[in-house]
Amino acid sequence: MSDATREGGGSVIPQIRIMRRSGLEQRATFFELFFDLVYVFAVTQLSHHLLATHLTWTGAAETAFMLLAVYWAWNYTTWMANWFDPETAPVRLVLMFVMLASLLMAVAIPEGFGDLALLFACSYAALQIGRNLFVVIVTPRGTFNRNFRHILAWSVASAPFWVAGGLIDDARWPLWLAALALDLAGPLAQYWLPGDGSAPMSQWAIDGHHFAERFQLFVIIALGESIVLTGVTASGTELSLEIGVALSVSFLGSVALWWLYFSGASPVIAHRLGHSSSEDVGALGRDIYTYLHVPIVAGIVLTAVGDELVVAHPDHDLEITGALAVLGGPALFLLGLLACSLRVRHRTGWPTVAAVVVLLAGVPVMAGRSGLATSTFALVVLGTLAVVEFRRTASVNSRDVPSTGG
pTM, whole model, 2 decimals? Predict the structure, then answer.
């Protein structure tokens, strides 16, 4: 294993055997897709936890907190796998360790704030520390190694709060909030350590196309969980015409979310990331994917919960919490898309803003109405927006294509 590094030309990535080859187009590997399967289960567990709490505010807070932890674990591993080759044995072994710890964390989610709190906390802390420790051990001394020593130090600093929160029921919320705040603040603080400075984002060179593809796949995971949840719910009922209509409306709503992300914001983000300078790409990747994709994923999960409520009882009147799930989920998703578009300086236009306003304004109006009527209202808003955005994008693209003489 060579200790030579590519620190010339602004790159700090070590040139060692287990790293991805530079100068080649990077794509998601089959092992990365295999790795994601654990998080399919985790997202399903999160939806079930929120449903099991009957959409109480306490249940929503617990689910949101655990969603952030699950996403943070997957997100950090994706950053690591952007540089390290999952086709090599050492990297596969550490990813298997992260998979196992993630599986245990996902298993603990239903009782994540109860009897299995310690399992949830220890699994999360172990995978974060173990993965970062691996990078520090296998990379030669240099800027890249120093940056990961900083990340490891931040992971170690938050671990006692995670473990203590798992042990002490009465102090769980303040301890875990402190732990998560440390983890969330790390990238923004550029992992600053007293006496050793920070790790500037200009040093975090990433493959923009591979990075975009990995987070696109996580959005697919969340959307897929929505379809699975409604399908399982429908199959557990005496299928009627009304339930069939509700299932169809929920499915078309998932299609609209897919369309708005993959035919709208995602290609723009991927293009911007792929054509950014090495000084900008790290900061863009951090802002867009580490932070601004959180409301996108959370919106899909909340929408899935609302869809399950509607498919299970399409003729039942929704309470305010049910209407918030059915309409607030898509609104949260659209707010995430807006934030990403603003970060890459892409003009989103007024239709997306109007759709968010209409969805949120519809919550008090649709509370007390049937789930099917509320879900249909959400579909009309999302479908209209998808059509408007598709026509706007097609118009922009046609103006960008130079005309040719006959």
Answer: 0.90
